[in-house]
Amino acid sequence: MTKISTSQELVANIKEQCGEDIANDFEKMMDQVNQPRFSAIKNTFRDSTSVFIMACANSNILYKDLREAGLKLGIASVETFSRRIYEMRRAGLIYTESMHNKGPGRPKLKLRFNPNAFKEMFNVDPSTMLSSSHSEDKAVI
Questions:
Q1: Measured between alpha carbons, how far is 67 from 44 in angstroms, rounded to an integer?
Q2: Domain that holds residue 75
Q3: Residue 118 to residues 27, 31, 67, 134: CA-CA distances in angstroms?
Q4: Could you read off the pLDDT of 72-108 as tens digits, one per residue?
Q5: Which terminal residue of the chain, N or C, has fewer Cβ atoms less than 10 Å from its own Cβ?
Q6: Phi, psi at residue 27, to the nearest 5°?
Q7: Quick check: is 25 in a domain?
Q8: CATH number at residue 40
């Protein structure tokens, strides 16, 4: 199995596009999931797309904003983000919360990180590698 490397260029681009908190969370999580003890874990949740989603969900980001930032950064396509978020929701790593609009239209979805499921799946306390929970209004790309 090849080790997934965190590209410093990608981290710098995430910092520019999404902010320092998300970039730091992304880098710390990539370093953790690349350790040998995680080699038995399903690869689906060990790649840069999944780690980016978890780092953004930790910041309570809107799904639409995550998707746009991920496309600009070249992390994944819209379809890949949709599939991965679906898989991560089924595994319990993240969950979504509807944000109701004042006017007509579909409600916006806010992604939330589930630290308990992460701890259960990876056997690591996420507070050791993630920024503390962010305020509701802070995560805007």
A1: 18
A2: 8-128
A3: 16, 15, 22, 17
A4: 999 889 999 999 999 999 989 999 998 877 777 777 8
A5: N
A6: -65, -45
A7: yes
A8: 1.10.10
